[in-house]
Amino acid sequence: MRATLRQAGRATVHLLLAAAMAFGAYLFITVLLIAATGAVAVTGLWLLPETVLLIRRIAGAKRQSTASWTGREIPEAYRPVTGPLRERLRTAVRDPGTLTDLRWLVAYYAYGWLPLLTLPLWPAGLVVDGVRGALLGREALVLPLIVRLADLDARWSAALLRPSPEALLESRVEQLTSTRADAVAAHGAELRRIERDLHDGAQARLVALSMRIGLAQRAYGADPETARELLNDAQEQAEEALTELRHVVRAIHPPILTDRGLVGAVRALAARWASSRPTAAESGAGSRGGLRVTVRTDRFPDGPRAPAAVEAAAYFLIAEALTNAARHSGSDRAEVVLARSRTGLSVSVRDDGGGGVDESAGSGLLGIRRRVAALDGTVRVTSPAGGPTVIEVELPCVW
Length: 399
Prior knowledge:
5 strands; elongated
């Protein structure tokens, strides 16, 4: 009986919210009629886009309410209403989402009264189900009807608010266009970084090496001792140039990632953070060292490896997240969690620092988002003031 009461109470809260929204929808017809009248009279055309945006907010609130009850998200697919008035009017009228919302709004006038049925059901249910449960030991009969009303309201709302396949396809195309642009921008930035590293590092050392060898050749006959010193310097320059080249190659695709897989590469990365400062190619200049990193792989069982692009994205986003933790968090500890799901790879990086991450302040999260978006993944950042900061990434792939 207690479980029935709790479920009926939760359904009543959902229905009360639905009733309040229905009452607002009934009042909204006034605004809608004013906008339609103004549009016909031409003088109020500017009201039409604003009215469509208001309808979107109402429909969005209903989507959230329905999703909280059912546990299933209802997608949105709208064209952005921006630009000059003519473009805003064209978008507001031609957007398939406008027709979907209007259809739901009209239907909601018909079934928005469902919450009123809870008024007689509660007293009847307390009496009837109380007697059935306390005296007869039978299951509740009336109170579950409130839950069914909430299910009916949610089912109708979900069916009416779900975007059309054309709208979903259009939204998907826009999303892919945006992620492709981000991928191109990230690729261009990566190429410029590699070019800068080669120009400022390996190329400069190779030029110095060439000069040392040239000077040694000239001094070889007249001053063998000086030539020997120059050749020693040239050997050191060659070793430094090789080190720089290894760093550049590691920044493009770490060999350890190919040899040992993602888990081994991440463990090696954690060990380097714990033992010394990370290299400039991995974490940038000016970062702190001595970050103790715990790597958890309980939900990453042995099995087929993810595609190379997915492993590389996961590795580099972990490296960037650890760099952020070392530079900005104020914490000396971080935790990396790798998990394998049926549809992809999950990565979580957590630090116990001060939190309050500002993505617009050059924290490196923009690069992470672009890299993940190129693979159609998702990034969620949680960083309240006082910490902790958690970066959760989902990378879809086929195992």
